[in-house]
Write a structure and sequence with these properties.
TIM Barrel; alpha/beta; about 40% helix; 8-stranded parallel beta barrel
Length: about 350
């Protein structure tokens, strides 16, 4: 297993983390996601621990809180040996106050997560989404309070735009509040939007990226093809929320198959190894509903792509620069750049 510091903090985490979003059960569309019972959860967590994973990720909203409960049960006495990240922000009840990033909801949700996880602290507490109805200062001050109270060790954000994250870091530094140390973001070979603004911000601010859905909802496992777009009933057949160019994706997967074969591994492992080659990535969250899926994904931890292979994957999935990035790239003073090396 590979390990990394979480941003510029002192927390050492495995570069592959087990995501517990699959833990639980549900009807309808979420039934394609929540489908791991407690015995299988115990096996998945045990396998992850044996592989050297020391970082586990969940959220209060996953499966009505069952994800947190089941993760706690599976970890048992090993809780103190690992780091746990959980999230707050999505609706957890019918009343208007049971959602968002208000002081009221953050404090109430934190207490609920602590109880379900059977712990007295959360290692990494993340705000799960934007809340346009709560002042930013209220959210940030509350996060600082939970760190000062010892109920969270580190805080971070998920699914925020770069401008808001940057504003938050400025407020945190200016007011002496606990700074963001983690950002849980979507990043994959078919979804590289974070590279435009968020990745440079994280590098500059000492924030570690936690990657959610690194296989684009399972598309990058290679099971979905032009001939079999439903993947024989895979997750994307019932829960398809990530937009990307399917036609380009099919071509990418076919280009990756020879690379995977050359390494004696899977397309999924290649996709994960590409993410692990990115310095901004602190940890990649892998979920599983079968032991075989977890074992396949864990191959990425020992898979080292060559520089040429990384460059080829970069080339195959490169997106056009957006403004003002292309402008600033193209007007760099070449004389100064050459002088400074």
């Amino acid at each position: 297993m590979q390990y990394s510091r979480l941003g510029d903090s002192g927390l050492v985490v495995s570069r592959m983390a087990l995501g517990a979003m699959t833990f639980g059960s549900a009807e309808g569309a979420m039934g394609a996601v929540y489908k791991v019972d407690q015995p299988l959860a115990n096996q998945l967590v045990g396998e992850a621990l044996d592989a050297g994973i020391n970082f586990f990720n969940t959220a209060d909203a996953y499966s009505g809180g069952d994800s947190e409960r089941m993760l706690a049960e599976a970890l048992g006495a090993r809780r103190r040996d690992v780091a746990i990240a959980t999230k707050v922000g999505f609706r957890t009840g019918e009343a208007l106050v049971h959602q968002g990033l208000s002081r009221h909801h953050i404090l109430a949700s934190l207490e609920g997560s602590l109880q379900r996880l059977r712990t007295d602290y959360i290692d990494v507490y993340l705000v799960h989404r934007l809340d346009p109805f709560t002042p930013l200062e209220e959210t940030l001050e509350t996060l600082d309070d939970v760190v000062r109270q010892g109920k969270a060790r580190y805080v971070g954000f998920s699914n925020w735009p770069a401008w808001l994250a940057a504003k938050s870091v400025g407020l945190q530094m200016g007011r002496g509040w606990s700074r963001f140390r983690a950002a849980e973001l979507y990043y994959s070979l078919v979804g590289r939007d974070v590279e435009h603004e968020l990745a440079p911000l994280l590098t500059d601010s000492g924030i570690g990226m936690l990657v959610w859905s690194p296989l684009a909802g399972g598309f990058l496992t290679g099971r979905y093809t032009k001939e079999n777009p439903g993947g024989d009933g895979g997750r994307l057949a019932g829960f398809n929320v990530i937009p990307f160019d399917r036609e380009a994706g099919y071509g990418l997967v076919e280009s990756m198959r020879p690379m995977a074969a050359a390494h004696g591994t899977t397309v999924a492992a290649v996709a994960l190894a590409w993410l692990l080659s990115k310095k901004v990535v602190a940890s990649v969250l892998v979920g599983a509903s079968k032991l075989s899926q977890l074992r396949d994904n864990l191959q990425a931890a020992s898979l080292e792509l060559s520089a040429a292979e990384v460059e080829e994957l970069d080339r195959l999935t490169q997106r056009a620069a957006i403004y003002p990035n292309w402008f600033n790239r193209d007007i760099t003073d070449e004389a100064v750049r050459k002088a400074l090396g």
